[in-house]
Input
Amino acid sequence: MAILCSDFSTRCNCPVEIAPFTSGEAFLAAFESGSYSIVFMDIYLDGMDGIKAALKMRELDSRCILVFLTASMDFMPDAFTCHAFEYITKPVSPQRVLNVLTDAFKVLPQQQTYIEVAVGRKTAQVSLDSIAAAATDAHYLNMFLSDGETLRCRMTMTQFLEKIGNDGRFILINKGISINADHFLKFEGHCCIMENGLRFPIRVRDCRKTEQAVWDYHFRKIRNSQRPARRY
Output
């Protein structure tokens, strides 16, 4: 299970901390409210069984996502009593775990996404939230962070866009220049002005299209924030 969770983390560029326990007692001794986002609980454990451990956990934390693992369907009614998110039967299918993790992450509070980049001889984990813009410079890519720092990486814009995946915040405004719309301040002539004062030229022929893409992103963000929250 730890390997499957680690593989999911790598695919989604979302670092996770995995803490395995050999018994329900050991898990409860370490558990605190808010300490874990997702718990995979085997029902057949040495000592206290998984159902009892889950009920104890629920006394401390009602929000943690709980997924049961078991070789039997007999405990499904008990699983619902514990407000389980899912019930995975053994042998565990890697695709089944991937699907459950994907669904679970949709209902978790939004997590920061990180990418791994080589800066000089070191490797750094960089939060996409902190990247205000990225621009190519010869065979390098400069990442301009919101705190004023600039990271210089040997990377193409194509490689950068592959790393960030389908992140709608990042918009190409010119050849080799991508901005994070969350850090956008205003348009001025054929330039895009960022909150940290950086200015980037917009490709003239695509100026209106680029401006519309930025405004569309912000309108979508406003609409999404106004939707009623789901109840679980």
Q: What stands out?
A: The chain is about 35% helix and 30% strand. The two ends are 25 Å apart (CA to CA). Residues 207-226 form the longest helix (20 residues). Residues 71 and 90 are 5 Å apart (CA to CA).
